[in-house]
Task: structure prediction
Amino acid sequence: MIPSLDPKLSRPSLTNSSQPLNGWVQGLRGNNHVQFLLLRTNGNILQVVCEKETLGEELFKQIKSLPQETSISVTGSWQENVKAPGGEELVLSTLTIVGNSSDYPITPKEHGPDFLHNHRHLWLRSKRQLAIQRVRSELSFAIREFFRNDGYTLIDTPILTGSIGESAGTLFSTEYFDLGQAYLAQTGQLYLETAAFAHSKVYCFGPTFRAEKSKTKRHLTEFWMLEAETAFLDQDANLDLQERFVKSVLRTTIERTIEELKTLERDPEPLLKVLNTPFPRVDYGDAIQILKDAKETIEWGEDINAEREQILTNHFGTAIFIQNFPRSIKAFYMKQNPQDPRTVLSADLIAPDGIGEIIGGSEREESYEKIVERLNEEGLPPEDYSWYLDLRKYGSVPHAGFGMGLERVIAWVCGLPHIRECIPFPRMIYRLTP
Result:
């Protein structure tokens, strides 16, 4: 049985001092008279004061020799201490060993990234990883909270699919009984659109898969994505929604994880400054010109890579939307721009600090004929998309949506240099275990 938890901090409160507290030994320090035991419980690290005079020679000696990660159950009395984690500590009365630990491989010394990822199942217990995963948890909850409060319905879209949502070259495929090839979903969007024609405002939030042979610090082969679709919404309103959503969920997450950000040595003020300014909406053509002025060799029609995204965010000093991309480099379902048929009504939200694209979205093409035309251009058989095309036959309406990669946003909030720390078990082209 564990103490009741403070709803804001998810940690034991001072008012529940009589119940046993269960956890693991995170570390020990002290002298021959008092030991300060760091106890990990419920994802928090608490300080337990072990006094030789009170506990006696035998128990004190046992405590001094406790190996890291020994699981224990303790009782004692709580007292305030501003220097202790969380501002309070437990003065130990009793200690019972639940499970022994020996030769724990992750020690306080410096370890390389390969070693730590090979021991990822244990590395998750470290102070830094505890903080990152708490931020991930709070951000995920804030996302669901935002959409629930905004009247959106959660739709669980399939992970196994027979249709291609993005580039065919980045699909994981598998044999599916007698039906041929199935694919791991790159996106839930096509299915989400069908639900938008039923519920008007819908979202999905789950794992997606991209077989990109990329080793950059921004890519995973398995990641989590938030996607939203809204009926009777145009692209300008879609960008309004995205900006309001990002600013809301990030402010909420920062407010709820101040202690975790301190652990990560992440000053939230620069991020909050970005969130308190409007996000400029930069036309793709204007972005290309800014890059040319910065001596970049790039032409209209080319995609904008990570390094160039950072040049653009540095130019504006904040997060930016790049909008109206060339039709030739975007997906078949994006609506052709009536003002410039070479482009589509799309936008990417680019975060500063080298994070890059965190959201991609567009107004969707509602014309049956234009969707078929684009499928043929992409070499995708329209018959495989008959169910998707039905949306354009039975009460088609203007609608728009977007997708946000969770791990890149976590990297932005936490100030992390590599996306692999932002998910409990990262999957990259060179890593499939643990």
User: Anything to note?
Assistant: DSSP finds 14 helices and 16 strands in the chain. The first strand starts at residue 21 and ends at 30.
